[in-house]
Amino acid sequence: MADTIDLTARLTKLANAGETYSNGARVIARGGGEEALAAILRAIDDTILMRKLTFRSGRESSLNLVVSGRRIVGVSDVDIPGQTSDTTLLTDPLSEEDDAMMQALTETILAFVQTDGPISVLPVKASRSGGMPTAGLSIRTLADAWGVEMDATPMKRFLRACQDFVPAAVHYKADILANRHGDEATDLQTLAEERAPSAETAYLALYPEQTGGSWLINISYGLKDARCVLLARAGEETGLLTCDSSHLGKVVGNWQRATQHV
Amino acid sequence: MENLKIIEEQVTVSDELDSLRSAFPDCQTVAFADLSSRMILKTSSAQKTPQELMDRLCEEAVSIFGDIGSNLSLSDDTDAAQAVVFTSTSLKIFLRGAQEPADILCCVCSPSIDVDSFLRHAQPALDRISQGPSAA
User: Fold this and answer.
1) pLDDT tens digits for B10-43?
2) For chain B, which domains are there?
3) Residue whose C-alpha is closest to residue A232's, from A181, A182, A162
């Protein structure tokens, strides 16, 4: 069995040059939170044949899902230190109409993605007898239950991850305002439309190789109780936000996760 | 005696830069520069860095604290004090002296660096450099 796993991991790695692996398992997210939830859903969505997907979070937590036809059809071993959800409810058949089971599964998954470490997945062949072909939980059901927007752009994911602690943010798609948030959004909108384009032009004159790419620039004004203004660009989308300088590390972390390439 | 003082100051600046870099292995290069003369005065780097790259780093600081900083400000009466430029491959941090705004630190780091922690150490280091050897 160990040889099979090793061989599967090696072949998969050869077939997917550029992806990151840890102990033979494919790294699907560099940290936890919504990015990790979306990555888990993508892994399920990529699985047509019946497989047991072993997800690992950091060194301690593991979660085994039996997946077939892009649906979770079973939950096997769950090992998440400190989790409080009732995993005895996670028994076959999994049905979205079973509220208690859905609640337990959501709590289990949320406990699993509470990590700063990478999350990896290793698929192995699985077989099950019986069961209806349509049984199990679709990723759309799971995305709704877990509050994940599967097709959100990196910029949207970044701004949403920051919205709890930034006083204001504006989001533009192809120079058209897509969303705004916070009391100071009007000031930011004025800045975005009147002066930020000059800042972007000056920035791209410095770093022309980043034209069309993803980048983030933060400027802190004053040193005591400093406020920051951040200009983020990902393809055709622009984000402008303010934050207290004490949140700068969180903002940069959110940007890394939203634009990560794993 | 004057020569001795100059040597002492240079040693202090170098020590501050080396100390900052050794505390943060994800920081590859730290350069102390004078914004008014647009010159890099002292560097500490993991590898020998060509002067052209150092000059370029200084140009970046000039533009970020100048055009870019003023165009992104929500208030006309506050100058840019710190800047973080983050791309998929690198992270650059620029700081200005609290008392001597022409004194700047230009830092080239890996994207994985702990930005908060680095800023908490780098700003006091720059301010000690600005105040001279007696404060360091």
Assistant:
1) 558 999 999 999 999 999 999 999 999 999 999 9
2) 2-131 (3.30.450.30)
3) A162
| Cross-chain residue pair A216–B86, CB shorter than 8 Å | yes
Domain shared by A100 and A164, yes or no: no
Cα–Cα dist A240/B31, whole Å: 29
CA distance A132 to chain B (A): 45
Q: Which amino acid is at A218?
A: N
| Together in a domain, A20 and A104 | yes
Question: How many domains are there within chain A?
Answer: 2
Average pLDDT for A220-237 = 86
Which is nearest to A255 in space by CA: A166, A175, A145, A130?
A166
Tens digit of pLDDT for each residue in A64-117?
A: 999 998 999 989 888 888 887 777 878 777 888 888 889 999 999 999 998 777
Q: What is the C-alpha to C-alpha distance for residues A5 and A74, in angstroms, rounded to an integer?
A: 20
Q: Is A245 close to B82, i.e. CB distance below 8 A?
A: yes
Supply A125's token pair.
């062949």
Two tokens at A222? 């004053």
Distance from CA of A195 to the nearest CA of B (A): 5
Domain boundary among A117, A146, A175: A146
End residue of a domain, out of A111, A146, A181: A146
Walk along chain B (136 residues) and give the pLDDT tens digit of each residue.
Answer: 556 555 555 558 999 999 999 999 999 999 999 999 999 999 999 888 898 999 999 999 999 999 899 899 888 777 889 999 998 778 999 999 988 999 999 999 998 888 889 999 999 999 999 987 644 4
d(CA A138, CA A68): 10
Complex prediction ipTM: 0.85
Q: Which of B72, B88, B91 is opposite residue A259, by nearest beta carbon?
A: B88
| A109 and A141 assigned to the same domain | yes
Which structural domain range is residue A47 located in? 2-146
Same domain, A102 and A204: no
Same domain, A46 and A123: yes
